[in-house]
Amino acid sequence: MVRVPKLTRAEVAQAVRNPLLYIAERWTPSPRTVRRAAMSAVVMAVAIVVTGGAVRLTGSGLGCPTWPKCTDDSLTATSAMGFHGAIEFGNRMLTYVLCAAVGWAIIAARSAKPWRRSLTRLGWAQFWVVMGNAVLGGIVVLVGLNPYTVAAHFLLSTALLTIALVTWQRVGEGDKAPRPLVGKAVAQLTWLLAVAAGLLIAVGTVVTGAGRHAGDSSDVHRIPIDWKMIAQLHADLAWVVVALTVALWFVLKAVDAPIGPLHRTRELFVILMAQGLVGYVQYFNDTPEILVGAHMFGSCLVWIGVVRVVLSLRERPVAVAPVPGPSAERPEPATAG
Question: Are 298 and 274 in contact (CB under 8 A)?
Fold first, then answer.
């Protein structure tokens, strides 16, 4: 049996008033624990996108027809609601797992010694994005899976993934001003790549909103645009992103850039090739559900790759306290005999 420590009334009051400070004063996580906590938020940010896609691809978007309850009379899904109700309610419950992962990241960042306010702020930024997206998810249900709200829901999930990834990266860095590892022209090319990738993902949500996977078997409104035309635009943007990635890799080789940016750019190229293969196969096979789900997962990997390329172009050295050297030996003053 684990002995429960006795708390004084003052300690209970402190824990209620500022629970993060109370935990921080009694627990110091290792840097590895803080990094794992940050990574758990990244993993859950990807998982919530994939499971959200499963809800839409199985036609379970209105499995729980209202929000925040599942039905007007029940907070949870009932057996009468069947498979679709279980899928939709299960995705809602996964939001609590995501909140737990983000909460762990916040607690670990706040308890680390020394305390880094920047990490805590990034953790809280994740929390508020999760809350905002949960409300937006409820609005998606209340408006009957309107494709514009569904697209916004996905893009906000991508924003969460971005912040979670930056948090994970910052755990292993210091708080000094970033020091660029490449020249200004290379950095501008990288940001152009990031903008093109962002447009690629945004246009992908339009492809989804105009496509056949509406998220429910009922008559769900679709974006009134030619699907083949917008899918072609999406493919063209993908090739632009690939071309910019190849150009960046050659430029980094030409300027003899550090190994980090080179490796990140190469990894992004491999991800893009795999994602493009899945995209073309699903297009020519009438977008089967399993491949669409894989493509959504791939979009997360593409964005992770892009963000890692951007972050690899600078470094933030960890401040190390100077260690005093041995003092010079001084002759002892002579004493009278």
Answer: yes
Query: Nearest 5°: phi and psi at 60?
Result: -105, 15
* Closest to 171 (Cα-Cα) out of 302, 36, 294: 36
Q: What is the pTM of this model?
A: 0.88
Amino acid of residue 131: M
Residue that the structure tokens 């624990």 belong to: 33
Angle formed at CA 111 by CA 260 and CA 30, multiple of 5 degrees:
50
Nearest-angstrom CA–CA distance, 13 and 173: 35
Q: What is the DSSP letter of 137?
A: H
Tokens 């500022």 sit at which residue?
Answer: 18
How many Å apart are CA 238 and CA 20, to the nearest integer?
44
Instruction: For 61, list phi and psi in degrees, rounded to 5.
Output: -60, -30
- At 75, the pLDDT band (50, 70, 90 cuts) reads confident
User: CA triplet 216, 219, 222: central angle to 5 degrees?
Assistant: 85
Q: Over the stretch 79-107, which tens digit does the pLDDT of each residue have?
A: 878 888 889 999 999 999 999 999 999 99
Q: Is the dihedral of CA 29, 109, 301, 56 positive or negative?
A: positive
CA 175 to chain centre: 21
C-alpha–C-alpha distance, residues 192 and 241, integer Å? 9
Sign, Cα dihedral of 155, 161, 166, 169? negative
Distance CA(45)–CA(116), nearest Å, equals: 23
Q: Which two tokens stand for residue 239?
A: 């090739």
Alpha carbon distance 237, 196 (integer Å):
7
Average the pLDDT over 24-50 and give the result: 94
Q: Is the dihedral of CA 104, 106, 108, 110 positive or negative?
A: negative
Residues of 161-180 as b/e, b for ≥16 C-beta within 10 angstroms? bbbbbbbbbbbebeeeeeee
3-state secondary structure string across 72-132: CCCCCCCHHHHHHHHHHHHHHHHHHHHHHHHHHHHHHHHHCCCCCHHHHHHHHHHHHHHHH
